[in-house]
Amino acid sequence: YNDPDVDAAVRAAVAALAEAGAIVDEVDPGFSDPVDAFHVLWFSGEAKVLEPYGSLAELTGRADPGLLRTAAAGSRCSASDYLDAMAVRMRLGQLMGRFHQDFDVLITPTLPLPAFPVGQDVPDGSPSPDWTSWTPYTYPFNMTQQPALSVPCGFTTAGLPVGLQIVGARHADATVLRVGQAYQTVTDWHRRTPTLMTQEDNS
């Protein structure tokens, strides 16, 4: 699922944490993709936030088209849809609470793929128009309200930055920050600057 360069960088980062003294196990937290429930919560929230600025039709041309599209989807969600999504959120939070009884943090890539061209909501060839299609490691923890930190952990062969995500139990912000600091103590990726990739206009 991950780009090979992303996978290699994250595995090297985990190895560095292990060498620094962390006890590392490769485990699956055990939940399926909660994207449908997340969309209900997030998109209906967008619709509510936009209400004071006028109808969605009135906002055409004044707000991001992708935002208007997803807010329109959110405006069609029923109270029953919202309650079902909240139930998914609660179950996911309970599952991750149990997970963190055994593990202080969960380490994942921040994103499974390198950066794609500016001005696009999704990478070329994406089967979905939604940004959640390329952020599977982050939005579940928006749902569970867990602290998560992204730190740089390398570059792809094309010179694009790769992020390492450190996720902790609810209210364990200090633990997440300590792990991030420990990683940055034994690496120097946070001091390196990626080469900016620009396209010259030869017209």
What this model shows, in words?
The chain is an alpha+beta fold and 203 residues long. It has 2 domains: 1-27 and 103-192, no CATH class; 29-101. It is 41% helix and 10% strand. It has 6 helices and 3 strands. It has helices at 4-19, 35-50, 65-75, 79-99, 139-144, 173-186, and strands spanning 105-109, 148-155, 161-168. A 3-stranded antiparallel β-sheet has the order 1-3-2. α2 packs across α3 and α2 packs across α4 (79-99). The longest helix has 21 residues, at 79-99. The protein is globular, with a radius of gyration of 19 Å. The model has no long low-confidence stretch (mean pLDDT 94).
Explain briefly what this protein structure is.
This protein has 203 residues and is an alpha+beta fold. It is 41% helix and 10% strand. The chain folds into 2 domains: 1-27 and 103-192, no CATH class; 29-101.
Helix-strand layout with pairing:
Elements: H1 4-19, H2 35-50, H3 65-75, H4 79-99, E1 105-109, H5 139-144, E2 148-155, E3 161-168, H6 173-186
Antiparallel strand pairs: 1-3, 2-3
Please give a handful of descriptors for the protein shown:
single chain; 203 residues; 41% helix; 6 helices; alpha+beta; 2 domains; 3-stranded antiparallel sheet
Structural class: alpha+beta
The proportion of strand residues reads 5-15%
End-to-end separation: 38 Å
Name the poorly predicted regions: none
Silhouette? globular
Please give the share of residues in helix.
Answer: 40-55%
What oligomeric assembly is this protein in?
A: single chain
- Average predicted confidence as pLDDT: 94
Question: Could you give the count of β-strands?
Answer: 3
Count every helix, treating DSSP H or I runs of 4 or more residues as helices. 6
Main β sheet profile: 3 strands, antiparallel
